[in-house]
Structure to design on (228 residues):
């Protein structure tokens, strides 16, 4: 799924991170399409800053938002709510969702130091 | 690398998350061994709560700690400091490190609802 930049380009903290760690069930029919659609939708949400995703066995998605209001608005998006319900019913054996306030950040890019 | 449970079992918030997102350079010699050693070491640090890791292209490691003091102690571990320096020199083309305070968390396990 395409989250944009593999390492999200985010502003100076503070901002928020939604950390979603998951194990898929054997029944992933429709999962890839739904995930792509969710990234497409969330990109249009006010206050969305970017996201990162990797899966090998466990999947980790970290989505960044300007504030709690932006997270709440995304949570309430009807299509997102529908997909979350399908996730619990079909795609996930387990997940943990954590809402965290990013307080400090530090980046490194090799091109900057060569 | 073995982070223990694929989805970290963490206490009730608040606690802290260190979100480390990275792109590897072509020269990964020694990287796997060093990463394994870091997970082995961090497990012995007071206030360490668990970690999650996935890589496909981009790598995401989220390590959880009780408080900022626990993060600072891990940062100051001499072997960890040495490995970080080698990471910037050899293994990483880019990374972003974010320190975040987990404020809310919600989990789902299929076995609980069947």
């Amino acid at each position: 799924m395409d989250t944009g930049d593999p390492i999200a380009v985010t502003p100076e903290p503070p901002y928020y991170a939604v950390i979603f760690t998951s194990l898929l069930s054997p029944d992933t029919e429709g999962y890839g399409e739904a995930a792509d659609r969710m990234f497409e939708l969330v990109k249009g949400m006010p206050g969305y800053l970017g996201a990162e995703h990797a899966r090998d066995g466990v999947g980790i998605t970290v989505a960044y938002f300007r504030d709690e209001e932006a997270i709440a608005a995304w949570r309430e998006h009807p299509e997102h709510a529908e997909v979350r319900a399908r996730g619990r019913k079909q795609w996930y054996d387990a997940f943990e969702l954590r809402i965290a306030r990013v307080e400090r950040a530090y980046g490194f890019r090799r091109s900057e130091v060569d």
User: Anything to note?
Assistant: Chain A has a mean pLDDT of 95.
